[in-house]
Every structure is written in structure tokens, then in C-alpha cells.
Design a protein that fits this description.
Number of helices of chain A: 15
Oligomer: heterodimer
Structural class of chain B: alpha/beta
Structural class of chain A: mainly alpha
Number of strands of chain B: 10
Shape of chain B: globular
Number of strands of chain A: 2
Largest sheet of chain B: 6 strands, mixed
Number of domains of chain B: 2
Shape of chain A: globular
CATH superfamily of the largest domain in chain B: P-loop containing nucleotide triphosphate hydrolases
CATH topology of chain A: ABC transporter involved in vitamin B12 uptake, BtuC
Strand order of the largest sheet of chain A: 1-2
Radius of gyration of chain A: 21 Å
Order of helices and strands of chain B: EEEHEEHEHHHHEHEHEEHHH
CATH architecture of chain A: Orthogonal Bundle
Helix content of chain A: over 70%
CATH class of chain A: Mainly Alpha
Radius of gyration of chain B: 19 Å
Largest sheet of chain A: 2 strands, antiparallel
Strand content of chain A: under 5%
């Protein structure tokens, strides 16, 4: 997995051509506008629910990629932030806080958790860090199962006054996902982004050039936790119910890591694509293969890491280069035939 | 006389009881090229690692430009003006050559100035850094590879990249660990020329090398180490005549042919 993360960038120059950047921005705006307009075309509430859930996944996936993709720190512990965010928002909503402030609080709680987890675990490198995050994540789940204030294992209900507006939930998830992508772009271009990729490639060499690896990792962890916590909060408000087996499940951590790897780890759009696919097909796969769906994800992960570490984005790039070569060759042939 | 740039006093570094550095003391004046030689296992690389903040000394004092740096982390050492290049190049392989240099530019001592100039404007700051990075690449002769992935460079070019990244941090003391090993004779010549230019521009250099010819040709003074201790110090000519140095390098019996070893 480390190798997959490291190989992901594949020597793509950080500063791409201006035209490509403008095209990507335009495409992103169009995608966002299309999603925003979709409910106006009378799609059913079930499809809106599916899109809502997918957007929550997009946010978490893009967040994970900040630390795992850019920084190369593979964490299996993002369910902690998702779950703590969900619980924090649930408690805040029940205390009468407005939805926006509740999600801010969810992000804040997740940030505090990210620092508490990051300070000790970032001393570990590579697989040791990954294993430590599994331990922390399971520990938090067990603790939350035994906290009686939030209902322990039986979970905690969110009781919000006022009528339920599905579209309000949808647009808040869309806004958060768009914000996550924008943050991802900004981080990638910033000094922090440069520090993260340098740390991913060679932590000690980065330190020898003045980078503080711990500071870069903690900062990326905190930003990622804030986004993931807010995503958990938004989902908790929609579901109106949180429970330790659901929000803190190991499967949540694995899903958050799987999506960016499917799409293309270390890229801007890979995590969005991966989460889009996962979000849209996940429920169908569970329904079709209730016993086997985890096996399918596991096999998929192995195949991607072995054959296309840069995920779907890498595959598309390869196809485009192949098509480009083909076209060029065709043109040369056309020119040479009289 | 101005105070020395670097004062090292009674520096000791032990690994599980084994002394890699034992009570090493020396001073470097600003503006010189100093050679650091010694047989394998003498502690040269360990000394550089301690000075660069990658290793914490067990005891002793490192005083650099009026600051106490013993036990400082690597990135505080860089901020203070000490940077090292690695014996085996360690490029950020999937990043472009240009981006490699930008890491040094934006996290070394130059970053305070860059921040003031492009206050908050991430993109403009990047553009400024790109120009500066290109200038440094021109200086070391790598400008034509600016957009290549650093992992695809030849070993010689990777060594130049090590130098370029280090220079980008604007050091006042450059620690070079065997920049010439594995290079052809003409490549070595051009790297030595580059080191002279770097010194000319005001950077003090501490240069570790196995190639005694290279050391003797460009260094003002040479420090000789053996088994973790400082054995001798002096001008290249003095060091070459020192019986203790000759013995450490080729053993007492070969002392007669010793001068040949220095050529």
C-alpha cells in the first residue's frame, strides 16, 4: 500500500499547463451546477438520498487523501473523526444548537481528536503508523459503546424540531463536498502541499531541507479530520440516529481509505471519482452480495495496488496517452501516403 | 578577528555504548572550504548528521553563528543556516527536479523573504519560487532537466540535485558528504569548480570525501578523523606529512609510501 501511495503521482509535474487547469475548474463548476440543479428535474427522494450519501462519502474521501494521498500516511482510523463528528453534531442538535453550528462543533471535536491521535502515532512510520491507527480506532469504538450518556451500544437519537426538508440536507452535503475539493486544491498548491509530498517521498530528506514533518502531518491530519467530522455531522443530522457499530465501524475506516485508492490516490479528482462510484454502487453490492461484498472490496484493493496504483485517474491517463500516440501515428501515416 | 562560524566542543555520540564520535572539538572560520577525511568508520558521516540536526549528540556543544545548536532538530539547523547533502542521493523521486529545489527554497532560510513578498498569495509565491529554483538549477547545470521526475536522473545529476536543493535553503554552512564519489573525472572537476563558486558566494563548506586528490586540491584546511576521534588538523600539506595520519590510513609499516597516498 505504501508503494501504491508513493507511485501515485507518477512524475506528473505539479504545475500543469494553464489551459488544463482552467478546463478542470470549468468542469468542476459544471459538475457542481449539474448536481445542484438535479433535484429541480423531479428525481425521486430515494435518488436524492443516494446522492446525499455519496456527497458525504466524497467529503470523507477527499479529506483522507490530504493526509494519505499527498502526505503518504495511510490511516485506518478515519472512522474516529466521522463518528466523533456524528456524535458531537447529534448532541449539539439535541441541545438546540442550529445545524451549521452543530457541524462546526463536529469539525472542532474531530480536530482535537486528530491532534490527540496524531501527536503519538506520527512518531511511527509506514505500516507501523497504519497499524496504530487501527488500534486507536477500535479503542474509540469500544469506549463509545460503553458511554451511557449517548446510549452506549443502543445508540443515540437526534430529535430536531421543525419539518424535514430533504433538499436542505442535500445542498448542505453538496456545499461541504465542494468545499472539501476546493481545500484539496488549495492544499496541493500551498507550501503545506509541497511539504506533504516531500514527506511522502522521503521524510528525513525533507527534514534536512527545513520541512518539519510532524507539523505538516499534524496540520493535514487536522484539516482532514475537520472535513470528515463535519461529514459525519451532516450524515447524523440526516439519519437522525447514531450508534457505535455504525458510525465507528471498521468498515467506515476501510471505505474512507478504499475510495481514494479506487479513484487515484494523491490526485485531486481521484478521491471524488472513487467516492462517486463507491457511493452509487455500494448499496447495490451489499444487496446483491450480502455475504461477499467485503471480499469484493478486498480483491478490488489488491488488484488496484498491483496493477494500477494510480487508480481510475491513472488508468484514464494511460488510455489518453495511448489514444494520443495512436492518433499521432495515424496522422504520420496519413501524411506519408501520397 | 571575528568569532568562528562554528565551534564544536567535546562532541560525543554513542550508539548503544559504541562511540561513533568521541570528544571531537574543532572550529570553522567563515568563508573557508574545510576537508574532513578519515578511513571508513571514522565517524565523518555521523559528525555531519549531528551538525545537521539529524542525530542528537550524546554530549558536547555545537555553537553556530552565536547560537547553541546541540540537539536541535534538522529543520531548526536549516533555519539557522546549516544544510547537508547526502552521500547516497535522496531525491523526492516522483517530484520534478524543479519541485525538489522548491522544497529547499520554500522551507529553508529564504522562506521568510518569499513570504513577505507574496503575502498570502499562494500562486504568485509559487511563480516567484519557480524562477528562483530555475536560477539555482542553471547554476548547478541541471536547468535542462527542470521538468523531469527526479527519480529518472543519472547518479551524477542526482548529486547535483542534492547540491541544488541544499543551496536553495541559503545556507551559511554547507555540509557535503562525498558529492564526487562515483563520478567520472570530468564530472568531479566540474563539481569541484561549483564548490569553489559556492564558497566565493560566501558559503562556508565542510567537505567529506574519500578522494584525497579532490580534498587536497580545493580545501584550505583539513580535519582528519579516525575511530570517532579527531586525529589531526592543518593545511593539506601539513596533514599529508603527519605521521599519525599516515599510520591511520595505511598502517605504520607502509609509512614510507605515505606521500603517494595523498596524491
Amino acid at each position: 500500500m505504501m508503494a501504491a501511495v508513493a507511485a501515485a503521482d507518477g512524475g506528473v509535474p505539479r504545475s500543469r499547463s494553464r489551459a488544463a487547469a482552467i478546463a478542470a475548474t470549468l468542469g468542476a463548476c459544471l459538475l457542481g451546477a449539474a448536481l445542484a440543479a438535479l433535484p429541480l428535474f423531479g428525481i425521486g427522494p430515494n435518488l436524492i438520498r443516494l446522492l446525499f450519501v455519496t456527497l458525504v462519502w466524497v467529503t470523507a474521501s477527499v479529506a483522507w487523501n490530504l493526509l494519505g494521498g499527498f502526505g503518504g500516511q495511510v490511516s485506518f482510523g478515519f472512522a474516529v473523526f466521522y463518528g466523533l463528528g456524528a456524535y458531537a453534531a447529534a448532541v449539539a442538535l439535541n441541545a438546540g444548537l442550529d445545524p451549521f453550528s452543530s457541524c462546526l462543533l463536529a469539525a472542532g471535536v474531530a480536530v482535537v481528536a486528530s491532534l490527540a491521535i496524531g501527536l503519538p502515532t506520527f512518531r511511527l512510520k509506514g505500516p507501523y503508523f497504519a497499524i496504530a491507527t487501527i488500534g486507536v480506532s477500535e479503542a474509540v469504538r469500544v469506549v463509545m459503546t460503553n458511554v451511557s450518556a449517548t446510549g452506549g451500544a443502543s445508540g443515540y437519537r437526534v430529535m430536531e424540531r421543525g419539518t424535514f426538508h430533504q433538499l436542505q440536507h442535500f445542498y448542505s452535503a453538496l456545499g461541504l463536498a465542494a468545499g472539501a475539493v476546493a481545500i484539496s486544491v488549495l492544499v496541493r498548491r500551498s507550501r503545506l502541499g509541497l511539504a506533504l509530498v516531500a514527506v511522502r517521498e522521503d521524510e528525513d530528506a525533507a527534514a534536512d531541507l527545513g520541512v518539519s514533518p510532524l507539523r505538516a502531518k499534524l496540520l493535514a491530519h487536522a484539516i482532514a479530520a475537520a472535513l470528515t467530522g463535519a461529514a459525519g455531522g451532516i450524515h447524523a443530522r440526516y439519519a437522525a440516529y447514531v450508534n457505535p457499530q455504525g458510525e465507528f465501524a471498521f468498515a467506515i475506516s476501510v471505505a474512507i481509505l478504499l475510495m481514494p485508492i479506487i479513484g487515484g490516490v494523491g490526485t485531486i479528482w481521484g478521491p471524488v471519482i472513487g467516492a462517486g462510484i463507491y457511493g452509487l454502487v455500494h448499496e447495490e453490492i451489499i444487496a446483491a452480495f450480502p455475504e461477499l461484498h467485503l471480499l469484493i472490496y478486498g480483491s478490488l484493493l489488491i488488484l488496484i495496488v498491483l496493477f494500477e496504483p494510480a487508480g481510475i485517474v491513472g488508468l484514464l491517463g494511460r488510455l489518453m496517452r495511448f489514444a494520443g500516440r495512436h492518433r499521432r501515428r495515424g496522422r504520420v501515416r496519413a501524411a506519408s501516403t501520397p | 578577528m571575528p568569532p568562528p562560524l562554528l565551534e564544536v566542543e567535546h562532541l560525543t555520540k554513542t550508539f548503544a555504548g559504541l562511540a561513533a564520535l568521541q570528544d571531537v572539538s574543532f572550529e570553522l572560520e567563515a568563508g573557508g572550504i574545510y576537508g574532513l577525511i578519515g578511513p571508513n568508520g571514522a565517524g565523518k558521516t555521523t559528525l555531519l548528521a549531528v551538525l545537521a540536526g539529524a542525530l542528537r549528540p550524546t554530549s558536547g556543544r555545537v555553537h553556530f553563528a552565536e547560537r547553541d545548536l546541540a540537539g536541535a532538530t534538522a529543520f531548526t539547523a536549516v533555519r539557522a543556516g546549516i544544510v547537508r547533502t547526502h552521500q547516497v542521493p535522496r531525491p523526492f523521486r516522483t517530484l520534478s527536479v524543479l519541485d525538489n529545489v522548491e522544497v529547499g527554497l520554500r522551507f529553508g532560510r529564504g522562506q521568510a523573504g518569499a513570504k513577505a513578498a507574496g503575502a498570502g498569495d499562494a500562486i504568485r509565491e509559487t511563480a516567484g519560487a519557480e524562477d528562483a529554483a530555475l536560477r539555482i538549477l542553471e547554476r548547478v547545470g541541471l536547468a535542462h532537466h527542470a521538468n523531469a521526475a527526479a527519480g529518472t536522473l543519472s547518479v551524477g545529476d542526482q548529486k547535483r540535485l542534492e547540491l541544488a536543493r541544499a543551496l536553495a535553503t541559503r545556507p551559511s554552512l554547507l555540509l557535503c558528504d562525498e558529492v564526487c564519489s562515483g563520478l567520472t573525472a570530468p564530472e568531479t572537476e566540474s563539481v569541484l569548480l561549483l564548490l569553489r563558486e559556492i564558497r566565493q558566494a560566501g558559503t562556508t563548506i565542510l567537505y567529506v570525501e574519500h578522494d584525497l586528490k579532490a580534498i587536497m586540491s580545493i580545501c584550505d584546511r583539513v580535519i582528519v578523523m579516525n575511530l570517532g576521534q579527531k586525529l589531526a588538523e592543518g593545511t593539506p600539506a601539513e596533514v599529508q606529512r603527519d605521521p599519525a595520519v599516515i599510520e591511520a590510513y595505511i598502517g605504520a609499516k607502509g609509512a614510507k609510501g605515505a606521500n603517494a597516498a595523498g596524491r
